Amino acid sequence: MNAIDFFNSVESHEELDGVGMDPEKGVFAIEHKPTGLTTCLHLDAVSDSNVTWGTLESILVGKREPEILYGMTRVVGYFSRISNWSTSKLAELADRRKGSYAA
Asked: For a disulfide at 20, which of 11, 29, 86, 91, Cβ 3.0-4.6 Å?
C-alpha cells in the first residue's frame, strides 16, 4: 500500500482522523475518534510487509492487535532499532520503562 492510498483511506473513514500526516515522507499520526487514542505509523514498515488496508484498519480501530515489525526506541538520543542490541542494553531499556511518571 502506498502513502497516498493510505492517506485517502484514513480521510474517508468515519472512525479515523489524520491528526498529523506527511504523505511524502510516509509518516502518519491517526486518531481513533471514539476512543481518542492516537497511533503513529511509518508507512515504510507497512510497505515492506505487504499489509493491506483491511489489516491496517482493523488495527487502527482496535479490532486486532498490531504486530511489531521493528522494535524502536529513542533512549540513545535518536530512533534506532533494538534488534541488534546486546542483552545488557535491552535490560537497561526495560528498566527505563518501569518508572512512575505521573505528575
From this structure: 29
pLDDT digits (tens, 9 = 90+) for 12-56: 999 998 888 776 777 888 888 888 888 877 776 556 556 778 888
Retrieve residue 87's grid coordinates.
542483552
Answer yes or no: pTM beyond 0.85: no
d(C-alpha 32, C-alpha 39), whole Å: 8
Torsion 33-38-43-45 (CA) sign: negative
**Centroid of chain to Cα 2:** 16
Q: Is 7 helix (H, G, I), strand (E, B) or coil?
A: helix
Distances in whole angstroms, Cα of residue 3 to Cα of each of 14, 68, 77, 96, 101: 19, 20, 27, 33, 35
**Cα separation, 53 vs 12, whole angstroms:** 12
Main-chain phi, psi angles of 20, to 5 degrees: -170, 100
- AA letter at 2: N
Alpha-carbon Rg for the chain, nearest whole angstrom, is: 16
